[in-house]
Amino acid sequence: MGLIKKLPVYAEKIPGGSIVTTSVEAILNHGQASSIWYLLFGTACCAIELMCTGAARYDFDRLGMIFRASPRQSDLIIAAGTITKKMAPRLRRLYDQMAEPRYVIAMGGCTIKGGPFYYDSYAVEKGIEHIVPVDVYIPGCPPRPESLLEGCLMLQKKIKQQKLADWQ
Ligand code: SF4
């Protein structure tokens, strides 16, 4: 009975019985959202905050966020830092090597729009959305670990609402 009380909101208990109904979509989305393995794409100072989020004080792992070193094993890229024009094709290649469904979090002003390099640099990309599609933007210079955690919770919410028909 205690277990049934802890079921997520999208699972329904038939009144008076111990049968629970849900949908395949809801179960898959719940599993996906609770176990997001991320590829760290840290290129500048924002990556320090990302690494800090993964350490003991903020404990990224409790959200099911596990760091992987290979795009083949990753569901998510967390891009944190300046993206130069030389790095852009590498970022796109890593994204293309990930299996569907895949997600991108853009962390910090440089990743989102080029940051302080927007006007005067010939070498910096003026926005990650020109390279890969983005699911969650986290503004800041740099964003604190709390902001990154909130961004990951937003991504989890988005994943829980995705439709099976959208999977490729
Ligand atoms: S947004 Fe700020 S902290 Fe982040 S990489 Fe750019 S300059 Fe560094």
Description:
The protein is an alpha/beta fold. It has two domains: 34 residues, no CATH class; 126 residues, Rossmann fold, CATH 3.40.50.12280. It contains six helices and seven strands. The strands form two sheets. It has a five-stranded parallel β-sheet. α2 packs antiparallel against α6. The longest helix has 16 residues. The protein is elongated and about 65 Å long. The mean pLDDT is 90. Iron/sulfur cluster binds next to α5.
What topology does this entry show?
Blueprint: H1 2-5, E1 12-13, E2 20-21, H2 24-34, E3 37-42, H3 46-54, E4 66-68, E5 76-80, H4 88-97, E6 103-107, H5 109-113, E7 136-138, H6 145-160
Parallel strand pairs: 3-4, 3-5, 5-6, 6-7
Antiparallel strand pairs: 1-2
Bound molecules: iron/sulfur cluster (SF4).
- H and E string: HEEHEHEEHEHEH
Total count of domains: 2
Number of helices: 6
Cα-based radius of gyration, to the nearest Å: 18 Å
Which residues sit in consecutive blocks of at least 5 with pLDDT less than 50? Answer: none
Note the main sheet. Answer: 5 strands, parallel
- CATH class value of the largest domain: Alpha Beta
* Main structural class: alpha/beta
CATH topology of the largest domain: Rossmann fold
Oligomer: single chain
Please estimate the helix content. Answer: 25-40%
Name the hetero compounds present.
Answer: iron/sulfur cluster
Mean pLDDT: 90
Number of strands: 7
Using the 3D structure, state the CATH architecture of the largest domain.
Answer: 3-Layer(aba) Sandwich
